[in-house]
Backbone:
């Protein structure tokens, strides 16, 4: 399962951040007295910050999207800078792939204010040729064009790049663009494992499977 050019998602793929994401986003609802159903985590997990903010508005949170994102950022900055760990075997696998001559890159919905300090603390920032937030491309991973833009920036075609993500929707969109896709297991997306296996070129439960 070796490739020469890798494009990694960040949250839930490289780092074990989804529990923190869910806890922080639900804290916003709790602090503002907004009730929600038992399926709230399953709903917001694939939405990211902006999508969750819009969903929160739809269930009664009387704040602007910008205000909701600002509250989330205030909570998450410290967590990413100091606490969120890498997932099992991620660091050793990244180093082995880099030593083998692979190009390693990141594409995530998380902003650089959270992304960069976390990767630097984990000691892997320097392993990547590019660390991109979707904000660098002024679009999201729900847009097939972002994968074309990334490949073009790398001087590659989409078929020369493999994208790894724990999120079903992101994997599906990347596959639509023509990019190779590997699904990555995360507890937050365990209900979508079989769906991801159907649309992806492969699926890994642990990063060491990439070696």
Residues:
């Amino acid at each position: 399962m070796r490739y020469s050019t890798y494009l990694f998602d960040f949250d839930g793929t490289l780092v074990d951040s989804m529990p923190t994401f869910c806890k922080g986003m639900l804290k916003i609802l709790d602090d503002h007295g907004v009730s929600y159903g038992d399926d709230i985590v399953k709903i917001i997990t694939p939405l990211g910050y902006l999508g969750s903010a819009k969903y929160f508005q739809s269930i009664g949170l009387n704040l602007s999207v910008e205000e909701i994102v600002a509250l989330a950022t205030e909570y998450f900055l410290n967590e990413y800078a100091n606490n969120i760990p890498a997932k099992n075997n991620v660091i050793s696998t990244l180093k082995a792939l880099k030593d083998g001559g692979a190009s390693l890159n990141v594409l995530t919905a998380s902003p650089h204010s959270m992304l960069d300090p976390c990767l630097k603390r984990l000691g892997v920032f320097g392993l990547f040729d590019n660390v991109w937030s979707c904000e660098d491309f002024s679009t999201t991973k729900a847009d097939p064009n972002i994968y074309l833009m990334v490949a073009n920036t790398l001087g590659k075609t989409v078929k020369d790049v493999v994208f790894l993500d724990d999120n079903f929707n992101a994997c599906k969109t990347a596959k639509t663009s023509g990019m190779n896709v590997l699904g990555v297991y995360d507890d937050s997306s365990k209900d979508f494992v079989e769906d991801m296996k159907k649309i992806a070129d492969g699926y890994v439960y642990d990063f060491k499977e990439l070696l």
The longest helix spans residues 65-82.
